[in-house]
Sequence to fold (248 residues):
Amino acid sequence: MSRRSGNDVKVLVVDVGGSHVKCVATDHMSPVRFASGPLLTPDQMVQKILKLTQDWHFDAVSIGYPGVVRGGSIAREPHNLGSGWVGFDFPAAFGRPVKAINDAAMQALGGYVGGRMLFLGLGTGLGSALIVDGVVAALELGHLPHAAGGTYEDHLGEQGRKRVGNRKWRKRVKDVVADFRRAFLPDYILLGGGNVARMKRLPPHSRRGDNADAFLGGFRLWQPQSANAAGAAGSGWTLADEEEPATT
Fold:
């Protein structure tokens, strides 16, 4: 795993989830974690992180956030955490430069090896992202309505798996992967998230993600493309989900 940029920037990577917050850093690759939950505010999170990492040295911070990020800032409050995330000044709180990105997009970036890749995160919900030649775009495919009723997240998320059982859930995953492949025309599909381990056989044209992908994606945010992904040209990553809408 490549951990530093050409400028030797030491990075703290924060993966924010609905049940836990996990952190690693350039010189501390064994994750530390603490419980999150519906009452966790961003200020509480930062204070806990700074306490856990008080002996660590890092120059910059990457945050994978379970929600919408625009212009490098959190644009919507999370579903499974406390309030106050929109407008929170993370650089001031950490005392260092901060890059925020959707958590699925960060995990996708960690597993990217070039070309056109669709990421689907099989976890509590359904995370999704698309990377095309180094341009990273977070998606919200899990919230799309499903032909059988509900949303794709209802069918492929953890509650859907528990409701129908692993065998039928695996069949649903394969069907959805085939549908999204026809729609997005990726070179390959990366399946990540905790429940990918329940897939005995992967669908065609797909790869199994790794739990460490989210952390690697956080490091890559501060690294040039050419140092990380085969076939990715250019000197930096373009985060399409962070661009401000154009004004007319």
